[in-house]
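Translate structure to sequence.
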């Protein structure tokens, strides 16, 4: 029997996703054991799971190392991988937003300095507004950029908004809601469509 390869994002979200797959009848008990293994197989259920960094799931799926996987909508919008987006799982909900120091007023006559790790999302958003921006690509602690006057605003994922609040920042514009999506490799969907559709149907229920 051919195994279905499933890429799960490491961390709390991935554990929630795994529980959804298990409830749909695709459990793999060894995944819950305390070990350092990266791949887990259940031959009876025909599934092989592996943990990968959340931002890498789409790469594994796009390149065919995984047949299906779960990635945040933020990753799909930022990197535009060539995959099928099959289902919004309704978990890992947050939003992509523009945040600025409390009381910030945009001066349209000046280029807006935007710090973000989501350069494409920021660029597409401001292009749609016709706003001229200077993107400063950062990989972590984005909130620090406006505090140190490196940027005017930031574009980042906001869950509760607490980190913003504690750093005297606030959401000024919401760009798009974000949640976890089930994605599939295009050729795997051709050849393993039946089993992928079976999982899809059970997850939808």
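Result:
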């Amino acid at each position: 029997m051919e195994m279905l390869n499933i890429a799960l994002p490491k961390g709390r979200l991935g554990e929630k996703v795994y529980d959804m797959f298990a409830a749909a009848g695709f459990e793999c008990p060894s995944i819950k054991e305390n070990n350092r293994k990266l791949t887990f197989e259940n031959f009876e259920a025909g599934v092989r799971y592996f943990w990968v960094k959340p931002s890498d799931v789409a790469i594994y799926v796009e390149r065919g190392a995984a047949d299906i996987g779960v990635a945040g909508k933020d990753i799909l919008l930022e990197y535009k991988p060539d995959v099928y987006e099959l289902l919004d799982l309704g978990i890992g909900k947050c939003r992509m937003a523009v945040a600025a120091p409390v009381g910030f007023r945009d001066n349209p006559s000046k280029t807006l300095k935007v710090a973000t790790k989501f350069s494409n999302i920021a660029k597409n958003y401001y292009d749609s507004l016709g706003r001229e921006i200077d993107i400063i690509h950062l990989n972590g602690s984005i909130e620090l950029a406006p505090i140190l006057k490196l940027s005017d605003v930031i574009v980042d994922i906001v869950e509760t908004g607490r980190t913003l609040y504690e750093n005297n920042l606030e959401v000024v514009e919401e760009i798009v809601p974000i949640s976890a999506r089930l994605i599939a490799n295009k050729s795997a969907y051709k050849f393993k469509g039946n089993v992928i559709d079976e999982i899809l149907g059970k997850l939808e229920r």
